[in-house]
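User: Here's a chain of 132 residues. Predict its fold as tokens.
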Amino acid sequence: MPNNPEHRLYEAELTLPTPFELSDRDTDRKDGDTDRDTGVATKVRPKTKRPNMYRVLLLNDDYTPMEFVVLILQEVFNKNSDDAWQIMMHVHKQGVGECGVYPHEVAETKVTRVMDAARKHQHPLQCVMEKK
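Assistant: Prediction complete.
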């Protein structure tokens, strides 16, 4: 029977490859992973977390002129004159008002700019930030 050509073909089909004959492509394949056939390496990117946001608040006082507060809202927070006036009036009547919501570094910079301008012009205006 060993001389039978059909038998040799049958034996060749049944032999398993040795470990040295297996390629990485055959052993590392995952279901649906078709990029390995073309040799393209893919990476799974981790999902990025959105940064924490912070509210920047102005606090009312009895000494800072309303015009100065409007100017600060326009210069530091890029508000138009109508929006700046409405926020200033809200701060005046309610005691506190939100100027905007920003990532931590941006909020911190805006608070610093407001406090520096108030100190420079000798106004007691206070600006704080809180996590949203």
